[in-house]
Structure formats: structure tokens, C-alpha cells
Amino acid sequence: MTREVRLTAEWALWGKPSHTRDDYNILECSRGKFDHDDFGKIITRYSPGTPTDLPQVTVSWVGGIETPYLGLAIQEWSDRRDRLGRPIADTRYFCVPYGQIADGPVSYEGLYDAFDGHALPVDGPLGVNVPVLDREAIADRADRTAMSAAALLLTDEQVCVVRGEATTMRERLRFLDTVAALLPYGLRARLTVSTWTDSSAEHRIKLSFAKHTRDGAYSVTWGADDGVAARRDIAGRYLELLQALSAEEVVTRLAEQTEPLSFRDAQHRAPALLDDYGRTTALMPARWSSTQVGDFLNACGDCLERERYEELGGLLAKLNPVAARLTDDERRRYREIIRVERLLGEHPKLSRSLETHLYDTALAIGYGPVLTAGAVERITEDTGGLRRPLVNAMLRMTVEFDALVMLLPLCSDNERKMDILRTLQTGDLVRVAAREPFDPPIVQLVYRELVIRGGDSAEDPAIAPALRKHDYLAAAIGAVHPDDGEIRFAWFKSLLVAAYGRSFGRAELAEVLRFPLPPESAGLVAAAVDLYGSGARNVVMSAFCEFLEQARLTPKTLNHVVGHLLPPPVPDPQPLNPQPLNRQPLNPQPAGPQSVRPLDGLNPAPSPRPHPRPRRGLLARFQSLGREREDDSRRRDRMIPTVGWVLIASVLLMVAVALVFLFTGL
């Protein structure tokens, strides 16, 4: 009997009403972790474009790396038309916690079969049973095309499968399943795939079928071998590892790795999982030693000069396996040859694939295995400037944080930058934005990613400490929007919600109010006070008094200083009853209703006495103010009924006297 996993999904229905000119939007959705706006952002973020052949399936993710969700969108034609007579395509979207899926684990095809039979809307969340992944069936489908696609995905670039128009949607979905199974299962927490995408659309799908290859993406031809084995970067090495083991062994090993994984981590984890027996060391050619590398590098330069590009490809295929076994001294010697021969320079006549191969090989030999900030500076100086293909090649390496920060602004577009930022842990993500000099596009992209990771419920617990460590990015946000306080206020408020959730209480406000605050924090304080709401002034005063205590003043001086910040006392109104109320005052000075002031609600500090009482901490005193005001309010509440009854009795007495005179006169 096939084992099944029980999944609970939130859902949304995307479309538009019949016979209207309305744009596509969320028509119905569940009420859970995600609301109407969240679903709208998710579906548009991973839109594959406008395919004409439906149905199609897109699998995406949302949430932080610690709490990811897997989403499955089924796009299909409805029986409705809009006001212009055009058919309307509905999208049913289902979102499941990744942890439930990993318990199987389950396949993309299994998810599709489980959800496809359910029309939307439904009451509440949707529960389904999904069979666990059939590893043997997937291994039987692991051909060279699927292995090539999986290997190219490890470069963290988009991959398009072309010439697959004749295949059915289910065949394409099974291919996507097979490719994903040739990578660690945890990568599905960051992998987006689609059975079809519009080549002209700007989308974020990592692996998809398309009619044409998008600019900047790799292509794999359906049913063909695209020569990935000739590459000597991570893709070529990983393909060799995939072919060294049986498909069933590969799928079995990788399916067990269900911990959520980023693409950056997968570049190290995936090869290591398949290299238990040291197979990568066997890639070193036995017929020549690493001391011959210099001769091969010089030969590559000669091929570039003479435009003998076929010979260049053969040399690069021999060079790359040696890179992993070079010493630091050898790399230093070879860097000079790479500079003189201009192997990292611009070569307009080279094909894109051969240029990629050349850059990957030269970088691995001269600057591997980890690219440092110093290496980025040397490469920039040696080449006279970093071009887009070279930057992409550098980012395919294992890159230190400082080097990554230097390369990010040089990426070709914001989509590429965003793809890299999504792979970072939350702490590193905030560090990127806090790095000076500030890069406005990077700060804006980091802000968006943090808001997505945190959501309205502080889904990522790492956001709050990371923001607190860097003053909530106050200086960076101030540099991006120096003249627009309203935008800064809105950004700070969104970040605080992402970090702490909508339940922003006293502890959270006190955490933000750490005096002395930098000048750029004015908008941050305003946003925090607005989130906290009524009563924030007491917390602000408590935090400020804690700051004043660092001055090491005597209790007398400290109380005197704090007294200047509090509103003056207002005497109680005289009661209507001529007899004074017999009660003891709560404070040394009379307490009563106070006028509305910026610090309304805080009682002033008592005047110094010849024999002062034992000093309490200022914070404790302000925390007790609420209780004191409640006691005063109760006393006034008891006064109000008494005065009211006196007035009523007086009125009744006057009416009675008037009636007596009236009847007596009659």
C-alpha cells in the first residue's frame, strides 16, 4: 500500500468577474496566514506570463528559509468572458507549509493530482492526502537532458527547456519533477518551476518550458545533449557526478536531504552528497601534472589571439579539473599569466557558452576556490573594469560576503540582484543594506525581501535581532529617502511589522527606544509609537529615564530634572457638596484631571523633602503611574453618582414646592 501524507493548504482564486473590464485580481481566498493582499502579491510575483495553451502548472515558494511555504498554481480557461468578449483564465493557487511536504517527501505531480480535483472556493483550509515520492519511477526518467538541466540550475541562473511544444502538460510536469529529484530535496524551498512560460515576459521562474530562451538564461533542448559536460564550472562537475552513480542511488540520496536549502548552499552541499568516495579527485587527468598549467594557460591566450576557438574549448576542458588541486603559491603564479594573456578580458567574437567556459576556468585556477574582496579588486584592476559576463562568472563561484557586497551593484538588473539577495541568510541580508556607502537600489531590494520574509506575523525570527544590530537600517533608509519623511515612516513601520508582527507591545517599543538614538531614527521612533498606539508616552518616558540614570546623578537631582518633563498638577474641582470629601490624598500633592499635554497621564515627581523616602527606580515609578491613575479615576467615579443624586433630589424638591403653591392658590 502506497504511503500518503496529509497536507493542509491555504488557497486563493485568481481571475476576474464576467462581462467587466476589471483587471485580474483575487476573487476568493482562505482566511489564514495569508490574506487577500498577500495572495495577490504571491501570484503576480510568480506569474509565468500569458500562455495560450492551458492548463499549465507553476510551483513556487514564499516565506523565509526557516519557515518556507510551497505553492502550486493551476492556470486554466474558465467558461466566462469579459466585457470585450475575451476568455477569462482562472488560477487556482494552493499553499502548503514546506515541513508537511518534506515529511513525505512528495512530488510535484502528486501535489497537482491532489489539488486538481478541488474547485474553489471551499470553506476554510483545504485538506488533501498526497502519496509519497516514487523514487524508482523518477529514477527511470532521469535521462541526460534532465541531468543537464539539474546541473545548470546549480549555477543559480534561469534554465529554459526549448523545443518541447509537442509534449503534454503532464509530461512537462514529470520532467520538472525529475530535474528537482536530481538536486537536494530541500532546494525545493527555493526552486520555482513551470510547465510553460512566456519568453517575452519578465518572470522569476528558475526552470520552465518555453518557446525561446530568455536573455541571460541557459537553454536545454528537449531530448538532446546540450554539451553541459564540456563546461568546467559547477555545472560540468555536477553532471559528471550525476553520471558516476546510478540514477536510483542519486534520487534516493538526494530525497533524504529535506532541510530547506538556498541555491548558494546547494552549490556546496549537492556535489558533496554525491562525492562520498572522492570521485572528484579522479577527474584530474593522469597524463600531465599541475606544473603544466602555465603552458596550457599560455596556449589559451594564443588560441584567443589566433581565433582558434575549437582548440580553446579542448584546452579549457583539460585545465579545469586541475583547479581544485592547486596551491596558493601556484595560483599566484598563474594569475600573472591570466592577466598577461587577457583571459578575463573582453572577447567579442567568442560565443556566449565558450566565454562562460573561459571565465569559469580562469577564475577557478587563478582565484579559487573562494573569491575574496581582494581578488575582486585585483580582477577589476587587471581587466580595467568588470563586464556583466565576468561578474556573472564571479558570482557563480563561492564568494565571501565582502566580495559579494562589491559585486552586487555591478549586476545587470534588479532581478539578478534580487535572486542573489534571496539566497542570503537574514543577518547577511541586513548587513548588505547597512554597508556604507549605501546603495539605494540594494537597500530597496533588501527592504522588500525583509517585508516578504517577515509578513504580518514576524515569520522570520532572525529579522528583529538583525535589524536591532544595525539600528533598524535608519541611516540606510535615510540615505535612500533623505527628503521624504512619509516614505521613511512607512518603510520603518513595515520593517517593524516584519520583525515583531502586528502585536507590537511595550517590550517591543522599549526595544526600539534605545537612547541615545541616532539622528536618522526620528521616523523609526514615530513608526514605533504609531504601532504601539495609546499609552506610548509612558514607555517613551521610561526609556528616557533609564537613559538619564546613566548620568549618575543623586536621587534629588534626578527627580528634579525629570520633574521638568512632566505636566504640572491640576487641583481637583470643588465638589458641589459644601462638605469636603474625607479622604487621604494618594500623592503628596493633590491629584486630579490633567490638561492634555505631550506627556499627559504622567504624574509629576514629588517635591524634595527634608527626609526623602527610599528611592525607587524611575522606570518602576513610571510603570506604576497607570495603576495610580486608575485609583484616582475610581474615586472620581464614586463622586459622580453622589453629586448626581444630590442634583436630582434638589430638582424633585423644587417641583414639589411648586405643586404645593399651585394647589394652595387654587
Q: What does the secondary structure layout of this molecule look like, with pairings?
A:
Layout: E1 4-15, E2 25-29, H1 36-45, E3 56-62, E4 69-81, E5 87-97, H2 98-102, H3 108-116, E6 126-131, H4 135-140, H5 144-153, E7 159-162, H6 169-181, E8 193-194, E9 207-209, E10 218-221, H7 234-244, H8 247-255, H9 263-273, H10 293-306, H11 309-319, H12 328-340, H13 352-367, E11 370-371, H14 373-383, H15 388-395, E12 398-399, H16 401-407, H17 414-422, H18 426-434, H19 440-454, H20 463-469, H21 474-480, H22 485-500, H23 506-512, H24 522-532, H25 536-548, H26 555-563, H27 618-623, H28 625-665
Helix pairs in contact: 5-6, 5-7, 10-11, 10-12, 11-13, 12-13, 13-15, 14-16, 17-19, 18-19, 18-20, 19-21, 19-22, 20-22, 22-24
Molecular structure report:
- A hairpin with a 5-residue loop joins β4 (69-81) and β5 (87-97).
- The longest helix has 41 residues, at 625-665.
- The chain has helices spanning 36-45, 98-102, 108-116, 135-140, 144-153, 169-181, 234-244, 247-255, 263-273, 293-306, 309-319, 328-340, 352-367, 373-383, 388-395, 401-407, 414-422, 426-434, 440-454, 463-469, 474-480, 485-500, 506-512, 522-532, 536-548, 555-563, 618-623, 625-665, and strands at residues 4-15, 25-29, 56-62, 69-81, 87-97, 126-131, 159-162, 193-194, 207-209, 218-221, 370-371, 398-399.
- It is α/β, with parallel strands linked by helices.
- 38% of the residues are buried.
- The strands form two sheets. Strands 1, 2, 3, 4, 5, 6, 7, 8, 9 and 10 form a ten-stranded mixed sheet that branches. A two-stranded parallel sheet has the order 11-12.
